[in-house]
Amino acid sequence: MSAPQEQHDDEDLRPTFAPGYKPGEQKTLDTYRELDKNDESLNRWKASLGIDGNVPGELSGPKVTVISLTLTSPTLSTPIVMTLADKTDYKKNPITIKEGAEYAVTMTFMVNHSIVSGLRYLQVVKRTGIKLDKMDSMIGSYGPSPTPYTKVFASEEAPSGMLARSGTYTARSRVTDDDMSVYADFEWTFKIGKEWA
User: Is residue 103 part of a domain?
Assistant: First the structure.
């Protein structure tokens, strides 16, 4: 008899917005380049997003490509990297996290074209169908760049004890923006063990 599959309701992966928050209207890169050219502070903001005329205008394909999630810890000698482009099934090949260890997740991503506003990382962790944890982290707004961006999320502490070590946890991760465009949506599993593996 096979183990029951974890079910993740999309309601679990809806971002939380502050009351009254309304995302701004999407604009093309060319529109941003032309916007208030004489406003010095706006020009500094545009330069911080890479809107300086050196990046090509609107192109096809996703605005954001998530490259990897990496787990790091002071107790882990080599970071654990989940590369989304490779064909490893991270749902069928669980990662082992050391019980009680403090660890952090880093996301590496590309912004390919256009500006992405309000990029955020959502993650729901379940075990035997019961939601144990939800993470909703704002990443920020970014302009296109030929080099990847990285975002390190707040450190977490792995559970410990015999009960924590018995069973597999399923995490569903999603990367979205203010317009609710989804750039990555994937599942991965992990176990809690006495040592990293």
Answer: yes
pTM of this prediction?
Answer: 0.76
pLDDT, one tens digit per residue, over 34-61 is 556 667 776 676 666 656 555 544 456 7
Contact between 179 and 26 under an 8 Å Cβ cutoff? The reply is: yes
Q: Is residue 52 located within the same domain as residue 68?
A: no
Residue type, 151: K
Long-range pairs of 30-34 with CB within 8 A, sequence gap ≥ 24: 30/57, 30/58, 32/115
Burial 87-96 (b: 16+ CB within 10 A, else e): eeebbeebbe
> What tokens appear for 174 in the block?
């999603």
| CB of 192 closer than 8 Å to CB of 165 | yes
Burial group, residue 181, by CB count within 10 angstroms (0-12, 13-18, 19+): middle
Spatial separation of the C-alpha atoms in residues 109 and 151, rounded to whole Å: 8
